[in-house]
Amino acid sequence: MKNIINTSEVMRFVINGLIATAVHFSILYLCINFLMLNYDGISNLIGAVFGTLSSFVGNKVFVFKDSKGNIFMQSSKFLMLYTIMVINHGLFLYYWSDISNHNYIIGFVLITMMNTVLSYFCNKYKVFN
Question: Full-prediction pTM beyond 0.85?
Answer without folding.
Answer: no
